[in-house]
Specification:
The protein is α+β, with helices and mostly antiparallel strands. It contains 4 helices and 3 strands; from the N terminus they run ββααβαα. The chain has a single domain, classed as 3-Layer(aba) Sandwich (GIY-YIG endonuclease), CATH 3.40.1440.
Length: 96
């Protein structure tokens, strides 16, 4: 039996537009973890919990490569990517 996998590369933002990039296999569960605001985490410290961009992948190698690519980008390029698909920086988590 073949099992299909889904992997996601996502960008979270705070209201002041601090950014966080991550890679889970269950995006909804990972967003819920971020919203728990666990003390001592980067996302809790800067109140980063709004999903502003995500991409889905079938293969983990592709997802890892994309995550690394995005993390290497400068801030302006990341913002351009977000604003191309989500110009008002809406929270996309409601659509999951």
């Amino acid at each position: 039996m073949r099992r299909d996998y889904n992997f996601y590369v996502y960008i979270l933002a705070s209201r002041s537009r601090n950014l966080y990039i991550g890679l889970p296999n269950c995006l909804a569960a990972r967003i819920a973890q971020h919203r728990e605001n666990r003390p001592g985490t980067y996302t809790a410290r800067y109140n980063i919990h709004r999903l502003v961009h995500y991409e889905q992948f079938a293969y983990i190698n592709n997802a890892i490569a994309r995550e690394n690519e995005l993390k290497d980008w400068n801030r302006e390029k990341k913002i351009a990517l977000i604003e191309h698909n989500n110009p008002t920086w809406e929270d996309l988590a409601a659509n999951l």
